[in-house]
């Protein structure tokens, strides 16, 4: 993931503007009455007209047929729009450089510059209607923790973040920056999760939780966008993955596994992960195991087209393009089969491979490969909230939950692509767009 030099300088200037603008993040009104044109109920997959939402502070107090607003309440007129819960992307890389031909860019970009880029990406993501993300790793370890905390403190605008801190990966594996300098010469913050045995896996997992991680991301197989690794190759051992899962559970949390190959996917499921990222080459046995164990699949079925088209134009490494071609259609076919089998599927895009803010482009692909628009929207709202264990606070427009809402023109239950252009965004009762 990298940015060309000239663009990086311009982007960092924009990032600083974002950071300064974030010092004036709008506060939530004490009482807000939102008039919706149509309100989407993600549980039933239907929309109802004439509904209003009373927001008190950061939370939703009531959802009801529209009436005169309570005394003193500020009225927000979204009556020309369809209103949905804020969207959730479970596979982002905000606190990192973005995809390009320069394999060395993460090393060339300092931790400070990476943090500024993260602030810029966070604002792009929020304004695209994604009010919560699960950020699943960064080459510069713990930069995501700093970004999450800055957003939570109101210092910069961005989505609610749940972060992994770093990748748990084998030396030279899919979570390492390979092919730039000898890996043992990389900065320490780029190797926080490198493990050689189950004992180290346990220690590194404990370290990440001690330093602010919300969950753990394991690199169970090789990666498409990592030099010298193959997506079908198993990397972490069964013992290493079980050690990570055990420590995560002891912290009341969970582990997810980057896994493209069928054998790595099945090993991760046996180890007890909550979700599988990518699942590109999953076989029928793996799908059945995931369904039986209740393991979620988070399949980024949009960005293969971006890598192929943009990567070819920009001269991305031939190895990347080859591996992308070998996995893209396989992954989409597997997604369609998972839909038919009733496997749990939640929305995740690998944002950062393509530019942040384009996350909603994946909805149309999910519909093309078997979901209804209502199912795709639920995957990015209530189902995503359930995966991360926050369904009581996020994922739908209901009393007691955070007032995270978006407004779009048109009917996303008929044409899911209207989600690619979000007119208004509210996060925690504060209108941010």
Name its key features.
433 residues; alpha/beta; Urease, subunit C, domain 1; TIM Barrel; eight-stranded mixed β-sheet; six-stranded parallel β-sheet; 13 helices; 20% strand; globular; disordered N terminus
What do these coordinates show?
The structure is a single chain. By secondary structure, the protein is an alpha/beta fold. The chain has 2 domains: 31-85 and 395-431, Urease, subunit C, domain 1 (Roll); 87-387, TIM Barrel (Alpha-Beta Barrel), CATH 3.20.20.140. It is built from 13 helices and 17 strands. The chain has helices at residues 5-21, 105-108, 111-127, 143-152, 198-210, 238-250, 262-271, 284-293, 303-314, 318-341, 362-368, 373-379, 382-387; strands at residues 31-41, 46-49, 51-56, 59-65, 74-85, 87-92, 130-135, 160-163, 167-168, 216-219, 255-259, 275-278, 296-298, 345-346, 405-408, 424-427, 430-431. The strands form 3 sheets. Strands 1, 2, 3, 4, 5, 15, 16 and 17 form an 8-stranded mixed beta sheet that branches. A 6-stranded parallel beta sheet has the order 9-10-11-12-13-14. A hairpin with a 4-residue loop joins β1 and β2. α1 packs across α3. It starts with a helix and ends with a strand. Residues 1-10 and 18-26 have low confidence and may be disordered.
């Amino acid at each position: 993931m990298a940015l060309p030099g000239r663009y990086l300088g311009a982007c960092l200037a924009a990032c600083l503007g974002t950071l300064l603008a974030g010092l004036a993040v709008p506060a939530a009104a004490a009482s807000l009455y939102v008039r919706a044109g149509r309100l989407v109920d993600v549980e039933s997959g239907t929309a109802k007209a004439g509904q209003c939402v009373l927001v008190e502070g950061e939370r939703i107090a009531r959802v009801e047929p529209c009436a005169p607003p309570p005394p003193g309440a500020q009225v927000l007129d979204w009556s020309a729009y369809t209103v949905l819960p804020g969207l959730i992307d479970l596979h982002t890389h905000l606190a990192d450089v973005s995809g390009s031909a320069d394999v060395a860019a993460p090393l060339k970009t300092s931790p400070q510059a990476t943090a500024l880029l993260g602030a810029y990406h966070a604002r792009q993501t929020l304004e695209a209607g994604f009010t919560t993300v699960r950020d699943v790793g960064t080459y510069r370890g713990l930069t995501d923790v700093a970004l999450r905390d800055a957003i939570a403190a109101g210092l910069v605008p961005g989505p609610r973040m749940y972060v992994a801190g770093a990748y748990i990966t084998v030396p030279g594996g899919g979570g390492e920056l390979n092919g730039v300098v000898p890996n043992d010469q990389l900065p320490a913050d780029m190797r926080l999760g490198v493990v050689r045995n189950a004992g180290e896996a346990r220690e590194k997992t404990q370290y990440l939780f001690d330093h602010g991680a919300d969950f753990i991301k394991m690199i169970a197989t090789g990666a498409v966008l990592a030099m010298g690794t193959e997506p079908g190759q198993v990397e972490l051992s069964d013992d290493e993955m079980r050690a990570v899962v055990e420590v995560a559970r002891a912290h009341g949390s969970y582990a997810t596994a980057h896994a493209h190959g069928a054998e790595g996917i099945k090993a991760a499921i046996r180890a007890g992960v909550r979700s599988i990222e990518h699942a590109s080459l999953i076989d029928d046995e793996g799908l059945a195991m995931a369904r039986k164990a209740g393991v979620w699949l988070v399949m980024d079925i949009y960005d293969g087209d971006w890598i192929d088209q943009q990567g070819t134009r920009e001269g991305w490494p031939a190895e990347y393009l080859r591996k992308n071609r070998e996995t893209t259609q396989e992954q989409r076919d597997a997604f369609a089969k998972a839909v038919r089998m009733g496997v749990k599927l939640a929305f995740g895009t690998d944002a950062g491979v393509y530019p942040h803010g384009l996350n909603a482009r994946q909805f149309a692909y999910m519909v093309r490969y078997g979901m209804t628009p209502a199912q795709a929207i639920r995957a990015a709202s209530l189902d995503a909230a359930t995966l991360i264990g926050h369904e009581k606070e996020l994922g739908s427009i209901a009393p007691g939950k955070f007032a995270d809402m978006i407004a779009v023109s048109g009917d996303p239950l008929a044409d899911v692509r209207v989600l690619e252009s979000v007119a208004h965004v509210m996060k925690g009762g504060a209108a941010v767009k």
